[in-house]
Amino acid sequence: MSFAAFLLILLVVTGVVWALDAAWLGRRRAARAKQPWWVEYSVSFFPVILIVFVLRSFLVEPFRIPSGSMIPTLLVGDFILVNKFTYGIRLPVVNAKVLELNAPQRGDVMVFRYPDDPSLDYIKRVVGVPGDRIDYRDKRLSVNGRPVPLKQIEDYLSRERMQYSRRYLETLNAHAHQIMIEDDAPALVPQARAFPHIENCNYNMSGVACTVPPGHYFVMGDNRDNSSDSRVWGFVPDANIVGKAFFIWLNLGELGRFGSFR
Length: 262
Known about the structure:
Order of helices and strands: HHEEEEEEEEEEEEEEEHEEE
Structural class: alpha+beta
Radius of gyration: 23 Å
Number of helices: 3
C-alpha cells in the first residue's frame, strides 16, 4: 500500500469518527464523561491528518533522492520538495488529472511514477516533450536536429568513488544545468528493453534516437552514464507525472545543502 493510500484511509476513518462524535456520540455521553480512547485519538488527529493530506496531495510533497542518477544536480540522500500543482491538479492515490495547468518543459526536473512499476517514484530531467525528435549519439544530445549547447567546466570529484568525472553545463530552454559524462563508458545504450512506442526509437552503437509520442515525455538523468532512464525503459506517460522538483531542504550527510536548484 502506498503512503498516499494509507493516509487517505486514516483520513476517512478519523473523519467518520469525528463526524459521528460531533453529530451523535457526543450527545449521548453523560455530562463530563470521558471520550473513549478511539474517539479521543480520532478527534485529536483528524485535523492534523486533513492538513497533511491536503498539503501533500495538492501543494508539495517531500521526496528523498535514492540513487546517484541525478548527480551533480542532486546527491544521494537529498531531501527535496516537489510542486504538485505546477503540471495540473490530480486526484490523490489514483493520480487522475482534474485540472490542466502547465505542461512539463525541457530542462524541468520531474518526479513521476516509474512506467514499469507505478508503485515506485523516479526523478529525472525532461529532455523531450511530445513531438520532439531526441538524438543522443556519442554522448551528445540534440533536440529536433539542433545540438544542445554544451560547455565543459571543472571535473566533478565523487566522494564515494574517489574519482573524477567530466562535468559540463548543458543548456535547455535557455536554462543551464550541470551534467556528468564518463569518457570510458560506452556510447551504446545497455540493456534497452521492449516498451510502449519502442517503434519510435532507433538504436545503434553510437546511442539512440527517438520521436516522443503524444502525451509522453523523454527523460534522462544528469549523471548520463549512470542512469537508467528513457533510453532504457521508454517514455513517461502524462498520467504518471507526480510533480516538478524545485527545492533541497535537507541532506543529513551535507547539512549545507539547502535551496532551490535547476
